[in-house]
Design goal:
Strand content: 15-25%
Number of helices: 4
Strand order of the largest sheet: 1-2
Mean pLDDT: 83
Low-confidence stretches: none
Order of helices and strands: HHHEEH
Structural class: alpha+beta
Distance between the termini: 28 Å
């Protein structure tokens, strides 16, 4: 579940940044997300490959090292849809949990 929370945080940070011309990459640093740098890099790669974000490139060397370069990082429509669907699911989960606690 931790990776999905991290993914949600990344996408939410990108959504919040839509009001600004520049995205502050420190908002999704490994330290701020409380994950290792390799995990953050892999999550960003998955988000890019799934079409949730744009503006990031990955290059794998012959030795297997992965270089990541962040350009103009942006949230896509698909990323916005993911956030909306997960927000609705979280609200439904909380409501169901509350109902369960009320029923003896």
């Amino acid at each position: 579940m931790g990776d999905f929370n991290t993914i949600y945080k990344i996408l939410a940070a990108l959504k919040a940044s839509m009001d600004y011309d520049e995205f502050d990459c420190r908002l999704i640093s490994a330290e701020r997300l409380n994950v290792s740098e390799p995990r953050r890099r892999e999550l960003l790669r998955m988000l890019s490959q799934a079409g949730y974000i744009t503006g990031i490139a990955f290059d794998e060397s012959a030795a297997g090292d992965v270089m990541m370069s962040i350009g103009r990082l942006r949230l896509t429509l698909k990323g916005l849809e993911y956030l909306e669907e997960n927000s609705l699911m979280k609200r439904a989960y909380r409501a169901a949990k509350g109902i369960k606690e009320l029923i003896p």
